[in-house]
Amino acid sequence: MATNLGIKEHTLRYYEQIGLIVPKRDENNVRLYSKEDQDWVEFVMHMKETGMTLEKLKRYIDLWHSDDDMEELLAILDEHKQNVKNQISVYQANLELLDKKITFYEYSKQNGTDKNLFKKFVDDNQGKNKSEKI
Predict the structure, then answer these.
(1) DSSP summary character for residue 51
(2) Helices and strands (DSSP H and E) totals, the chain
(3) pLDDT score, position 129
(4) Enclosing H/E stretch for 124
(5) Keyword set for this entry (predicted)?
C-alpha cells in the first residue's frame, strides 16, 4: 500500500505504531489493507500536508471510533479548516508580493531600467508623499 500511496513503508509502519491505522492480518500475520485503510491513509496525508499534527489526527481517529458525540471531532476539523484558511491568506499575500517583484523585473528588463526594487519603492513613495502634501 505504501507504494500505491507514494509514501515510505517506514511512514506506514509508524502510523500503525501510533495507532492511526490498524490493518487486519491473515493467519501468517501479513497485513491486509482494505480500501477503507487506504482511504484513511490518504486522508491522513492530506491533513498532514495542510499542517495537522499527528497528535490531532490521533485524537480525531480516537473520537471517530468512540461512541462520544461528534462535538470535539467537528471542533478539530473546524479549527484545522480555519488554520488552513489563515495559511492560504499568508500564501496569497506572499504570491501578490512575488507577482509585483516579477512584474517590476520584467518591466526593468524590457526597458533597461534600474533593477533596484528598493530604490523604486522609495522613489514611488516619495512621489506619493509629494502629491499628498500638495
Answers:
(1) T
(2) 6, 2
(3) 58
(4) helix 117-133
(5) DNA-binding
C-alpha cell at 61: 481517529
User: What is the Cα 124 distance to its own chain's centre?
Assistant: 36
Give 114-131 pLDDT, tens digit per residue: 666 667 667 776 766 555
Rounded Cα–Cα distance for residues 117 and 31 (Å): 58
Closest CA to 45 of 78, 85, 2, 88: 2
pLDDT in tens, 74-97: 999 999 999 999 999 999 999 999
C-alpha cell at 31: 497485513
Cell of 97: 508580493
Q: H or E element: which one contains 110?
A: helix 71-111
pTM of this structure: 0.69
Cβ–Cβ under 8 Å, residues 104 and 120: yes
